[in-house]
Amino acid sequence: MADAKETLIPAEENSFRLEAYLARGGYEAARKTLLSMQPGQVMDEVKKANLRGRGGAGFPAGSKWAFVPKADDQPKYLCVNADEGEPGTFKDRAIMTRNPHLLLEGIVLTCYAVGIHTAVIYVRGEYESIARRLEQAIGEAGLKGFLGADVFGTGFGLEVYVHRGAGAYICGEETALLESVEGKRGWPRLRPPFPASIGLFRAPTVINNVETIANVPLIFRYGAEAFVAQGLPRDGGTRVFGVSGAVKKPGLYELPVGTSLRKIIYDWAGGPAEGQGIKAIVPGGLSAPFLTPDEIDVPMDYESLAHIKSMLGSAAVIVIGDRTPIIDVLRIVARFYAHESCGQCTPCRVGTTWISKTADRIAAGGGVPGDLDLIRRLAEGMKGKTLCPMGDAAAFPVLSMVGKFGRELEETISRRAE
Amino acid sequence: MSFSLSQTAAKRVDELVRRYPKKEAALLPVLSIVQREKGFISPEAERWVAATLGLRPLQVREVLSFYTLLRREPAGRYVIQVCRNLSCFLAGSEEIIRHLEARLGVRAGGTTADGRFTLETVECLGNCDHAPCLMINDDDYGPVTKETVDGILKRLA
Description:
The structure holds two protein chains of two kinds.
Chain A: H1 18-23, H2 28-36, H3 39-48, H4 61-66, E1 77-82, H5 91-98, H6 100-114, E2 118-123, H7 128-143, E3 148-151, E4 156-164, H8 174-181, E5 205-209, H9 210-222, H10 224-230, E6 238-245, E7 251-256, H11 261-268, E8 278-282, H12 302-307, E9 316-321, H13 326-340, H14 346-363, H15 371-380, H16 390-404, H17 406-417
Parallel strand pairs in A: 1-2, 1-5, 2-4, 6-9
Antiparallel strand pairs in A: 3-4, 6-7, 8-9
Helix pairs in contact in A: 2-6, 2-9, 3-6, 5-6, 6-9, 9-10, 13-14, 13-16, 14-15, 15-16
Chain B: H1 7-19, H2 27-38, H3 43-53, H4 57-64, E1 78-83, H5 86-90, H6 93-104, E2 117-122, E3 134-136, E4 139-141, H7 146-156
């Protein structure tokens, strides 16, 4: 067994291969756990580790699993959300590319804990090569008896399938994902009922992000206490921070939960790009309210970001340089949500399109006084008024730009109106 | 019905139909298989898929018109998808898109007259540390410049 601590994205070459994963001690945690622990104990251990969802909402994984009925008299499903579509986010791509067996080991542990015998990895359509890599890994693990009818000789059965999306941001929303797997449009469902009671094919279903599941083996390998100690008491482990935009070294940095945003940008990503200052920062994927440079001493965890009225989301950091007009950012953001609104709820369908058209008009020099009020009203009209969080996701960044960069936007409007 | 798939693809479809408790769950994967083999999903293909999965043709059309990667018309041999979302915009994607439009003589969304290239703009490809990035068929490229894009086109031509 290797002494080096397993990371979500290993640096070694060919880290994705089964032999490499085994040489790093892979699948040992799952084997030991399945042979020596009861499912309930496994769930308790994950609760103790305070593993929070890495997809965006940050819900504690152990508690989510506990909502699923214990009875074994009906099928239950695990859906691994690999639809990674939140702009700025590219961490799951790296985990699946470089460490597919870690994800599979996490799936084994999760399914054992919850009593699930079928897992579906929902991979976004664009990730063709990743889907192939996962299927290869599933085949290899099956041959070794790590998956299949008799996992580690314990009699526990588990089939894992890769299911491909076909291009739709909304399918990263958990109930839209379920609809999509069922062969329908990705239209989010009304909740309740929650997927834990009525999910895929109307059966109890756990839905977790790739990074969340990939963390599970680490809890069993090093212990829940070590996992918590690595991050924060109520938010254990590391996060894979993806940094892009106007920085010297864009990339993925796996760091303890709670690392300061300043540290991530300056110490890891090399600071702002040559010759630029920082104008704004997206701290957690495009849906997170924008931050200004005086807010970057914030620790990157769910609660600290909520405290300053933003969110950690998918931990994707986008740095916007001071040479970029904020109206351009606004129009790009607005266009994205208008393009991706599924069309089911009127406030989102109409609101995103209207905001996008208004932003385009301002950018083209046709802004008129009152435009920012219009945008604000439209965004407020979506917030909390849609079936799924997309209404909020579309409103948050827009409202933060209008709020924090209102003066620049007003100047743009009056200058171009002259 | 005149529509048929290659033996390998048909076998794959059979597996998928049996995999799920409801046949219709195989719809997206089956449409992807059809598109991969035929390049697009024709009205005949739609009817075939509906019959194979026990669906009404309308249910297939509903799904087909929702997902951006599924196409109802033929595309060029090489489909170039250029990301236009924020990280790529900050790295100059608009210039790349304009350059490609000029080079290929088509607007985004169009296909060259020789049927070689289709140019599309897309939302985030999840490759933001390689911005500005694009995909050509299944392959990722990035960060690209006008010069590297020219080089890639030349190699494909």
